[in-house]
Amino acid sequence: MERQMLRAALDKLKRKGVLLECNKEVDPKFELGAVLKHFSNEVPILFKKVKGSKIPVVGAMFGERKIYYDMLGITHEERIFKMMDAIANPKPTKLLTKGPVMENIITKNIDLPKMFPIPTFHEEDSSSYITAGLVVIKDPETGQRHVSVRRLQINGGNEMSVLVASPLANKQYLEMEKLNKPLEIAVVLGYDYSILLASQISSETYGVDKYEVDSALRGEPLELVKCHSIDLEVPAHAEIVFEGIMPPHRRVTEGPFGELMGYYGNVGPHPVMEVKAIMHRNNPIFQTAFPSREEHLSNGLIREIELYSALKTMVDVKDVNVTVSGGCRFHAFAAINKRNAGDGKSAIIAALASSKDVKHVVIVDNDVDIFSHDDMEWAIASRVQASRDLVVIPGALGSGLEPSHGLNGVTDKIGIDATKPLGDAGKKFERAKIPGFEKIDIEKYLPGIKL
Ligand SMILES: Cc1cc2nc3c(=O)[nH]c(=O)nc-3n(C[C@H](O)[C@H](O)[C@H](O)COP(=O)(O)O)c2cc1C
């Protein structure tokens, strides 16, 4: 039986009946992504025949909340606390001498576009991209591991550009560059839900080993092996590991690339990775993620912990939603148990302060479903008066990853207090109820109806 990582996850997805398998040949250029996008990147699909390659490709594994919870074995209600617990109590990993990912080791004639079915997603993308690479580096001074997901532009041959946006990863590269030395780097494909989630916490904020957070989340030690040619550890049951170096003083133009919110992001010079060795399992499966939709759910789940924690200090928060349509970072919905007249505004202050990326916040009462856009619109339509309930903060620092911020480098932030008044005034805001509605068994009235 498969243990940990992609194959174990695929077995489970199959058993649950949520994995689609495509037997028709697809072109990795545009066609594969178009099929993923048809299902809004929410349905995992295994493409068994990919033009120009014998290697199958899997995508859209991480784009749907319910699948994510099921695969982690957690409920929606527990998610925030399980993740907080794993971050606060990381558990040791287990280093094996051998693992399935070592079944094949290639050190010569590495030609990435020829060897792997690497997709191109959007019309103006500069090249094909590895969009779901789990990037592993080590701090040369402290030896502390750093794990995150980055996109990698295929430059041809054995070279790809690495988009290192976060300050910490950049710091390690820049430190080595000052010493005129290369930084060792591994890129892992073929992982699972737990490690992707762990990879999305910020090293700067938490300073923990994300492999150890993964061990805590999965409830058993993450099994690792040493890379073949560099001093880094990677998951033993992964599909493919690219090993190499980021040489100092070399940068290549990266982009354009269709990314967050479906826009082409900034084009600029970025460091490169020279792939020196590849380890892969027999009959490897290539893992991709449609940019930038499904992956941001995992990122958004971590943001929900942070939003919840910030709100908890000010109000009695019931639940939070960092919405997918808002790029899993720009929009925050929160339901609160309102106890004091100012709770709605306090919640706005806390939510907007929880991350520079949060741009628009809506606070509702606990009778509103914050995962239903209909219900949210209902609350805004019927419980908000702009002169009283709208908070506008002009010119704050926002995220450069959305184009309206780019107009002048700052972002206006908005909070909407859609909570109803307390006391007698609140009675006007009670919803009309049908006694027995929740308990109705519709099949009794309409036998055989497909729900
Ligand atoms: C599939 C996927 C692709 C991502 N691509 C990038 C990327 O290209 N560049 C980037 O800076 N962050 C990217 N991210 C987000 C980072 O992985 C995430 O912010 C992570 O927490 C960074 O960790 P760090 O703050 O410890 O460096 C991606 C996330 C996912 C899930």
TrEMBL record:
Q: Name one Pfam family in it.
A: UbiD_C
Q: Which residues form the 3-octaprenyl-4-hydroxybenzoate carboxy-lyase-like Rift-related domain?
A: 98-293
Cellular component annotations (GO), alphabetically ordered:
cytoplasm
What InterPro entries is this protein classified in?
UbiD, UbiD-like_C, UbiD-like_N, UbiD_Rift_dom
What are the GO MF terms of this UniProt record? carboxy-lyase activity
Q: Where is the 3-octaprenyl-4-hydroxybenzoate carboxy-lyase-like N-terminal domain?
A: 10-86
The 3-octaprenyl-4-hydroxybenzoate carboxy-lyase-like C-terminal domain sits at 299-418
Q: Please, which domain of life does this record's source organism belong to?
A: Bacteria
Q: Which family does it belong to?
A: Belongs to the UbiD family.
Which PANTHER family would you find in this protein's record? 3-OCTAPRENYL-4-HYDROXYBENZOATE CARBOXY-LYASE-RELATED, 4-HYDROXYBENZOATE DECARBOXYLASE
Name of this protein:
UbiD family decarboxylase
